Amino acid sequence: KEKQALILQSAEQWRKANLDVEKTLNHFEELQLQDPCFFYTVQKDEDGMLRSIFWTDARSRMDYEIFGDFVSFDTTFSTNRHNMPFVPITGMNNRGRTIVLGCALLQDRKAETYKWMLQTFLQEMGGGQMPKSVITSQDEAMSKAIAEGMPQARHRFCRWNGKAQEKMAAFVAARGNMKAELDILVDNSLTETEFE
Questions:
Q1: How far from 90 is each of 60, 122, 158, 172, CA to CA, in Å?
Q2: Closest CA to 38 of 22, 56, 24
Q3: Positive or negative, the Cα torsion across 3, 47, 31, 81?
Q4: What is the 3-state secondary structure of the chain?
Q5: Cα angle at 160 between 156 and 166, to 5 degrees?
Q6: Which tops the pLDDT comparison, 195 or 60?
Q7: Strand 85-92 relative to strand 70-73: parallel, antiparallel, unpaired?
Q8: Number of CB atoms found within 10 A of residue 146's CB
Q9: 40 forms bridges with which residues in the sheet?
Q10: Confidence label for 156 from pLDDT (cuts 50, 70 and 90)
Q11: Are 69 and 150 in contact (CB under 8 A)?
C-alpha cells in the first residue's frame, strides 16, 4: 500500500508540475479552432513526454514568404520555472521593422533540438524558401544545426552578443573612443573591402 501511495503521490506531483504544459496545449488548440492558420507542433521523447514546442500563424507565414531572406534565432532567453530556452524567430520587413516569424520553447540547447526547430520552422513556412542570411548568438550547437539544416544560408553572429562584448571590453576601454568608431565601421561599411 505504501508503494501504491508513493506512486499516486508522484503521479499527482507530476500532473501539478506539468499543468502549465497542459494549459498551454489547450490554449494552442483553442487558437487553432479559432484560426485554422494558427499552427503548433510538439516534439516528444520516446516516452511520449513533451520536450519542445513550435508555433506560428498565418501572418508570420505570409511575412516569411515576402521577407524570409533574413532570419534571426535568439536562443539567449530561458523560462524561469522549467529553464527551457525560449526562441523568438524574427526577421525584418521592408521598413526595417522586426517581424515575428515563429516561436519555440525547447527542451535544451543541444544541436539535435535546434535541428528539430529549424526543420519544423522551414516545413511550416512552406518548405521551399531557405533564408539567405541567419543571425544567432555564438552558440556552437546552433552553429552546427544551421550548418546541417540550412547549409546554403550565410550564418552570422549577433554583434550585440554578450560574449563578444565581455572579451573585448578591456581592449575597447583602453582605446578611448574606439567603441564609437567600431560602431560606425560596422554600421556603415557596405563592402568587405571598405570594412577591411
A1: 9, 13, 13, 30
A2: 56
A3: positive
A4: CHHHHHHHHHHHHHHHHCHHHHHHHHHHHHHHHHCCCCEEEEEECCCCCEEEEEEECHHHHHHHHHHCCEEEECCCEECCCCCCEEEEEEEECCCCCEEEEEEEECCCCCHHHHHHHHHHHHHHCCCCCCCCEEEECCCHHHHHHHHHHCCCCEEEECCCCHHHHHHHHHHHHHCCCHHHHHHHHHHHCCCHHHHC
A5: 110
A6: 60
A7: antiparallel
A8: 23
A9: 55
A10: confident
A11: no
Give 42-78 pLDDT, tens digit per residue.
888 888 777 899 999 999 999 999 998 888 887 777 7
- Nearest CA to 131 among 54, 73, 56? 73
Give the residue carrying C-alpha cell 533574413: 70
Cell of 95: 521598413
Give the mean model confidence (pLDDT) for residues 16-23: 70
pTM equals 0.71
- Convert the pLDDT of each residue in 95-136 to its tens digit: 889 999 999 988 888 999 999 998 999 898 887 788 888 878
Q: Which residues contact 116 (CB under 8 A, 6 or more apart)?
A: 43, 52
